[in-house]
Design brief:
This protein is α+β, with helices and mostly antiparallel strands and 170 residues long. 26% of the residues lie in helices and 36% in strands. It contains 4 helices and 8 strands. It has a single domain, classed as Electron Transport, Fmn-binding Protein, Chain A (Pnp Oxidase, Chain A, Roll).
């Protein structure tokens, strides 16, 4: 399989893993060097693999991103035991067409002035690397594997974990 096909395959795997996980924790690097995390609602993973979010242009995360565009996203679906981390570069985008495409009435909770809110902006994150862990088994099966591993003094195989080839600057 050539590299281009592998990239598309891993991007699809990432999209499948993120399907059904509505919220993520975005971590940015503040100008003072501290790491700052906050929740965001994922609106879309586009055909190019970029992840899209609404944000306020006056948010502290925007200052962080202007200082250093490197970010990390942490996704979790504990019910399915799927955990995904995505690192990449963030960019602030003001594009009325894209805002209209992604807008829903539910967004007025965060932006009471609606899609014409002057502070409304988009956050576009282009993944550079991603890693996932997929438990793939019920809690009982995982517990039994833990128990067997403890009794036998060996490591438990409790899921699949691998890096996905989703971007450029790993």
């Amino acid at each position: 399989m050539d590299h281009e096909k592998a990239d598309r395959g891993d991007a699809k795997i990432l999209g499948d893993l993120l399907a059904g996980i509505e919220y993520t924790m975005l971590t940015t690097l503040a100008p003072d060097g501290s790491l700052v995390s906050r929740p965001l609602q994922t609106l879309q993973m586009d055909a190019g693999g970029a992840l899209w979010f609404f944000t306020s242009a006056s948010s502290g995360k925007i200052d962080d991103i202007h200082h250093d565009s490197r970010v990390n996203l942490a996704y979790a679906n504990p019910a399915k035991k799927i955990f995904v981390t995505v690192s990449g570069r963030a960019e602030v985008v003001v594009d009325r067409t894209k805002i209209d495409e992604l807008w829903s009435a539910a967004q007025t909770i965060f932006f009471p002035q609606g899609r014409d809110d002057p502070t409304l902006a988009l956050l576009k994150i282009v993944p550079a690397a991603a890693r996932y862990w997929d438990g793939k088994e019920s809690a009982l099966a995982t517990l039994m594997k833990f128990g067997r591993a403890v009794l036998n003094g060996e490591a438990a195989d409790i899921g699949e974990s691998r890096e996905l080839d989703v971007g450029g600057d790993k």
